[in-house]
Amino acid sequence: MDRQRQIKLLQDLIQIETIDDHEKQVVDYLEKLFAPYGDRVSLTRVPYQGDRESVVISIGPTNGDFTLGFSGHMDVVNLGDRSAWKDDPFSGKLYDNDTKIYGRGTTDMKSGLAGMIGTFLTLLDEKVELTGELRLLATVGEETGMWGSEELTKQGYVDDLDVLVIGEDTTELNVVYASNGDIDYTITSYGKVAISSQAGAGINALDNMLDFIDLANDKLRNLPRIHETLGPVVHNVTMISGGDQVNSIPGKITARGNIRINPLYTVAEIQTILEDVVEQVNQMPQHKFELQYDYLGEAVDGDLKGEYVTTAKSMLTDILGHPVKIVGEPGATDASNFVKSPTAPTMIVVGPGNDSVHQIDEYVDVAEYLAAAEFYERFAKKYLS
To answer: Does residue 36 contact residue 114 with C-beta atoms inside 8 Å?
Structure first.
């Protein structure tokens, strides 16, 4: 695909506002984009709710020897202070002598998604005779709950894939072969309200919550299995709320916690440790806690020397003209759901991006975006033609 058309494709996607909603409008756009190719393209809408749909697009024979998956999410994060943006965050404008594209979602991750879509269009335009299927899984709600990838996994769209490339942003187009899992939880401490001047009249739910946090940090921050690239399990309590007024003992405190699970642990193992902590604090005098899980995502491990990882590294080194690295990703991606498939494929993550991710004035470098698009095309042609 030529440079101008590839850039226009990304700009079109950026201009569709998908802050935690409206992914269906991206699906509508893609349906029109692929309509001229007729029955050479299969497009399946997967509704979530309201104006939210994931979509599965495939080309090539479904009875071939190899099935390659591409994946990206269509939602973007909130703008923050919109007035602080120097330009329209949904403009997709070129700037700095046309070397950058501006707007929310450029890095995370409409550039990766657009690069993958460009590969489909190129293969169709060139009438490449494919020996297997290329399948795109474009998901809803990755930023807030990974709902799309959860549903697509449940419906079996991952089960027959041999390899899945996820287009999330990776630093300098490094190849991610392993990524952390994620547990989000809510913990509630129940006490007894009383006036603060009467010592011992109430039960301070906040004091008790601090006991939970201390014990949880001690147990979860000192686990013995350290991953070769991702390091230890990471635990943080990130939100606390409760209390009625400054001169009253709080009778209820709610906290939310986040655990990043390295690939040497399963979600179930970490749940057992966390639940043991809750059981221990509940045995303390005047302590009462309830635990609720908000999200459970498995870690993804891979082979540093595996064929697809090393092939990706070699291709990107050739495209960029300098070596890239094989790395681990401390954050979670849709891979945390895809890995739950009973026959989960090899997964790698490669996508254009930079440290403007989730920031005001987000952007992507045009050269890096085009390099990623070229990589997706080369990778598809190597394994499917």
So the answer is: no
